Amino acid sequence: MIRFLKNKPICTTGIIAAILLLYQGGVLAEPAWASSVEYRVKAAFLYNFTKFVEWPTHGGGTGKAFQIGILGEDLFGSEIEGLAGKAVGDRILKVNRYPGWNDRAANCDILFISKSQERDLKEIIRRLNGSPVLTIGDSTDYARRGVIINFFMEDNKVRFEINLKQAQRAGFKISSRLLKLAVILEDADK
Question: For residue range 80-98, what is the model confidence (pLDDT) as tens digits?
Fold first, then answer.
């Protein structure tokens, strides 16, 4: 089956076959491209979150660009670069990478905190302290430890949980449509 997306043919059969191959599980060790597909999906989620989250009126980054920051090890690689230049409201999306904490990370609209920063997570959350920075991660217990949105894998699918109390503390309003897709953590420590 071939469908057209903006005048470009897309073979949905090939995409479905690639996804099935990716998620067969157990036959081979996870190939590098499997991780690439996972992070392509996560990058797409990052962009789509901008459509279902309302930033506080007093904040949301600095300047004209809508900034996504990657703090720590960057497992997105080139997958995240596809977002650069896209429109977020009346702003243009820009991607920044920070190998370790940098005060400029506090000026991002979205800050993805990688697993490599787990040891410093408590300090990172303290430094952000209610700032209008949508924190996102993909590590065990990140949402319970103060990150607003945390990805996890379930049944070979990328899912996410939301620390609603932390989102409210930072002044975010999250669409009920997004909340319906998420696991909501009511009892998070933060």
Answer: 999 999 999 999 999 999 9
14 in any annotated domain = no
Q: CA gyration radius for the chain? A: 17
Residue 14 token pair: 């090939």
Q: Quick check: is 52 in a domain?
A: yes
Whether 8 is in a domain gets the answer: no
Mean pLDDT, residues 23-50: 70
Token pair belonging to 29: 């060790």
Question: Residue 29 falls within a domain, yes or no?
Answer: no
Burial class (CB in 10 A: 0-12, 13-18, 19+), 90: exposed
Measured distance CA(14)–CA(1) in Å, rounded: 9
Q: How many separate domains does the chain show?
A: 1
- Coil, helix or strand at residue 76: coil
